[in-house]
Specification:
alpha+beta; Phosphoenolpyruvate Carboxykinase, domain 3; 3 domains; nine-stranded mixed β-sheet; five-stranded mixed barrel; 26% strand; globular
């Protein structure tokens, strides 16, 4: 259920709380101060709203991510430590990073992470991933459903290759249950854990999700090309952007006018109905989807070494707008970037060993229906 709906339903309980809590499979607690910007709340809710809960009673010994307004950083700064510069940022080596222009502060305190921010200029899932890796779990960019066998079939790969279309057919037409459309978690026990969030629907999804497009009145245009043209060609845009950031209005205005390459975001229960969700399960197979210039579908087995490298690269490509911040955290030793990357690679290799792994080449000019028909013909939904 959307966290905003939960808050409305439980308003009497939550009105007295000073924080909102998200529990990701008892692996990570995210504790969000009610003092933070509503835009930060909106962004975090979009990413992890499924995991919202109304208390923090069982969070002992679980790694946490705390999120506060930027000025609260003073509670975590040790004035006796000498700060150093790293490009436009400053920090204390091994302790925190501070960017006053972006009003973003990140601190490591034992096994927890502390974020102080005034704007939605950080990606919560990047920090979720950092803490997951330390517990032998990792996010991957994939859709996943529970097959009739009870095992979890995972379809991974770059955006636009067919993951959402495949999930739509599996759930709507075959009555199977889903774990996630864009992200899921896998672990060293070769389990897949759910990570559901709103579906991000684009023009090419209209064929498979035609009913959703009709019921929700989603149109196949959103003026994104016009917005992008204006966004990139307005005179003095750089000066205006700098000024708006200084007075604190940039992110609020950008949220309204920034070009978006999708048509709508829809909660999965609105698409599939209730009772179409499963929390976890043993991994059955993983299929990596690739678009190809050839005109025919082709599927081959692949190795864990090849696929672990590609899956690791894709998830960090999803973080691409925030990778410079990840590198800054490493350069200031707030996180050990070398160990993080090494452990991610090692973990994926170990998870993927002795699992059925495939690469599926999908013709670039094929339709979602063509892809679904190929999967049915080759019994790849089983």
């Amino acid at each position: 259920m959307n966290v905003l709906n939960k808050i409305n339903k439980e308003d009497k309980i939550l009105s007295n709380l000073n924080e909102y809590v998200y529990n990701i499979h008892n692996l990570i607690h995210i504790i969000l101060s009610r003092k933070v910007s509503d835009l930060i709340f909106k962004d975090i809710n979009f990413q992890i709203g499924f995991f919202f809960k109304n208390n923090n009673s069982d969070s002992i010994n679980i790694p946490k991510i705390f999120i506060y307004p930027y000025n609260d950083k003073n509670n975590f700064i040790d004035s006796s430590s000498r700060e150093i510069f790293f490009y436009e940022e400053i920090g204390v080596l091994g302790h925190y990073l501070d960017n006053s222009e972006k009003r973003l502060f990140v601190c490591r305190k034992n096994k927890d992470l502390i974020i102080c921010a005034d704007h939605p200029n950080f990606l919560i899932n990047l920090y979720v991933q950092i803490l997951l890796i330390e517990q032998n779990h990792t996010l991957i960019h994939a859709s996943a459903y529970q097959a009739k066998s009870g095992k979890i079939n995972i379809f991974t790969g770059a955006g636009g290759t067919g993951k959402t279309a495949i999930l739509g057919h599996a759930v709507s037409q075959m009555g199977l249950k889903y774990l996630g459309d864009d992200l899921v978690i896998i672990n060293l026990n070769k389990e897949c854990l759910s990570f559901p969030r709103h579906f991000v629907l684009k023009k090419y999804h209209s064929q498979i999700y035609s009913k959703t497009f009709s019921v929700s009145k989603i149109y196949n245009f959103n003026f994104s090309y016009l917005k992008r043209f204006l966004h990139e060609n307005l005179p003095f845009v750089g000066i205006i952007k700098t000024l708006l950031k200084k007075i604190g209005f940039y992110y609020r205005i950008a949220d309204k006018i920034r070009p978006k390459d999708f048509l709508a975001t829809i909660p999965p229960e609105k698409i599939f109905g209730i009772n179409k969700f499963v929390n976890s399960g043993a991994i059955g197979s993983i299929i990596y989807l690739d678009k190809t210039v050839d005109n025919s579908f082709l599927i081959n087995q692949t190795s864990s070494q090849i696929l672990s490298n590609r899956i690791m690269s894709v998830i960090h490509h999803e973080f691409r707008d925030y990778n410079s911040h990840l590198l800054s955290l490493g350069a200031l030793n707030v996180i050990n970037y070398n160990i993080y990357m090494k452990n991610t690679s090692k973990l994926l290799n170990n998870i993927l060993s002795n699992i059925k792994l495939f690469e599926l080449l999908v013709p670039n000019n094929s339709s979602p229906t063509d892809l679904i028909n190929f999967l049915i013909k080759n019994n790849l939904f089983d």
